[in-house]
């Protein structure tokens, strides 16, 4: 009798458990459909293939799980294996119904068609970078302000005036690091690139202020693509605090600059002066909030990419001695052709670094510093035979393009010679994005990296303490120990 009752209870529990699982599966399948797809009417049948994941959280758990593993590309591979290589997939990402675009053609169209797509960054990113920064500006305002403010960092001819400052700081930093013993190579390079960008945009600031600002920028950057969880211990919470601290510091910088400009005209104009002077057709000047948000955006973008790509370029060169030797021979040849009276790099020499620039391009392709950018459909858009509904996000997935074996054979292999022919079509190489919102600091970043690599390959080597250190992929690809090791001098400086 007791055994019969126990069996009855056990069977009942199994039935209840199965019912709960069934309900959860039905919920998983239908909640997001009801929230986002059902209201589209017949348009829902022309949506791209895909899966919106769990109710409310969508595909974020699978995204984070993949990018916190050793195989970040398993996230998109799951879509391809389930739905075929359509190049476009529906998903629920960062709290929004989204379409992930993964081919050169679809990526290029989303990035360049300003009539049908506008910026569509997640709310969390907007709150951290700033509502008045470029990422949220309407097209016309963005175009005007970018033209007025980016003249300081666009084009090699303009940047050549900063080359001496960049080179002096590269030389002194490399020398200093050899005497520091064990260092986090990535951390030190990022400090250097931050110092350079601060000089270009703000002329000068004290060393303690720059180090404090760089630490806050690091915290801010680590939270930009994190889930919006404003609780101590989470990346977004730390990033939000960092933004508040940065706002405070930059407000004092703006106030001080306004005061100095009243007392006397600036001898050297920088980005801050451009922002203080700029006005629209009606004579309206930028508010302090607008100035600070634009500066925060420029400074963050202006040192993160160059710091990471410099470190990874050195990492790959040392992993491939044949490429390191070729790069060194190219730089030695540049110095041999140098007139005896010349000291330091020139813009002409930078342009002669053919192989070194192939190393930089290949590093940017393999690493893909920014894995995705966000756009939003301004109207219903038909693409590849599918519809992206108005208001849905379009996620331009750069990694899928840069690591496509049909475009780049053996895509995860580092091979600068794949750029010898340089026959890639538009949309196949997007390290700085594309269209009117192409990263304005791309020329500066590449010149900084080239100047650093020039001196490194000639005179130094880096001994990595943990060569098999695991890699972290969010928010950017980097070794978990920030490339811990020692810098050694291997020849007399030139």
Automatic annotation (TrEMBL):
The keyword Metal-binding applies. InterPro entries: Cyt_P450, Cyt_P450_CS, Cyt_P450_E_grp-I, Cyt_P450_sf. PROSITE patterns: CYTOCHROME_P450. Keywords: Heme, Iron, Membrane, Metal-binding, Monooxygenase, Oxidoreductase, Transmembrane, Transmembrane helix. It is an enzyme of class 1 (oxidoreductase). The keyword Metal-binding applies. It is a single-pass membrane protein. The chain crosses the membrane at residues 7-27. Its EC number is 1.14.14.107. It is found in: Membrane. It holds the Pfam family p450. One of its GO terms (molecular function) is ent-kaurenoic acid monooxygenase activity. It comes from the Eukaryota. Belongs to the cytochrome P450 family. This is Ent-kaurenoic acid oxidase 1. It comes from Stylosanthes scabra.
